[in-house]
Write a structure and sequence with these properties.
Largest sheet: 5 strands, antiparallel
Number of domains: 1
Structural class: alpha+beta
Radius of gyration: 16 Å
CATH architecture: Sandwich
CATH superfamily: Periplasmic metal-binding protein Tp34-type
Distance between the termini: 51 Å
Strand order of the largest sheet: 1-2-3-7-6
C-alpha cells in the first residue's frame, strides 16, 4: 500500500514538474490581457480557456490546490506573472477579486506555478469585469486593478 501511494505521489510531482518547466522556459499560455507596473514591479496577465487550463493541469487531476475549482461555472483560468524591478520572477501571496457585470464578486487565492500565479474564474456573463489583484511580496502589498470585457 505504501509503495502504491509513493508511486502516486511521485507521478504527481513529475507531472507538476513538467508544467513548471514549461512556465520556467517562458511558455506562457493563453491570451495576454494586460501589462502594468506597480511600484516598479511588472504585472502581466493571461487568460486561458477551459481547454488550455485542462492541458496545463494534465496529470494533476484530483489534487487540491488554491485557486482551483470543481465548479461547473468555471470558464477560464486567470494567470498573473509578477517580476521585481530587476525583471526577476517573484514569489508571494497573490489573490484576485473580480466583480462581474451583474455585480457579483469572485474572490480567490492563486496557485503558484513557478513564474506565475493562477486561479479558476467564471467569465460567463457578457460585459465588463473589474479585476483587482492583491500581491504580498517581500513584506510589501501591491495592488493592481483593470477592466476586462467579455463580448
Amino acid at each position: 500500500m505504501k509503495k502504491a501511494i509513493l508511486i502516486g505521489v511521485m507521478s504527481m510531482v513529475f507531472g507538476l514538474g513538467s508544467v513548471l518547466a514549461a512556465f520556467a522556459a517562458g511558455h506562457a499560455m493563453g491570451q495576454m490581457l494586460r501589462q502594468s507596473t506597480v511600484d516598479g514591479y511588472g504585472f502581466m496577465y493571461h487568460v486561458l480557456d477551459v481547454t488550455e487550463r485542462n492541458a496545463m493541469m494534465k496529470g494533476m487531476e484530483g489534487m487540491e490546490m488554491p485557486g482551483m475549482s470543481k465548479s461547473p461555472d468555471i470558464t477560464n483560468h486567470l494567470v498573473v506573472y509578477i517580476t521585481d524591478p530587476g525583471g526577476k520572477s517573484v514569489s508571494g501571496e497573490i489573490g484576485f477579486m473580480i466583480t462581474g457585470p451583474d455585480g457579483k464578486e469572485q474572490k480567490t487565492l492563486t496557485m503558484g506555478m513557478n513564474n506565475g500565479y493562477g486561479a479558476d474564474v467564471s467569465f460567463k456573463e457578457k460585459g465588463i469585469y473589474k479585476i483587482k489583484t492583491k500581491a504580498k511580496i517581500a513584506g510589501k502589498t501591491l495592488l493592481d486593478e483593470f477592466s476586462y470585457e467579455v463580448k
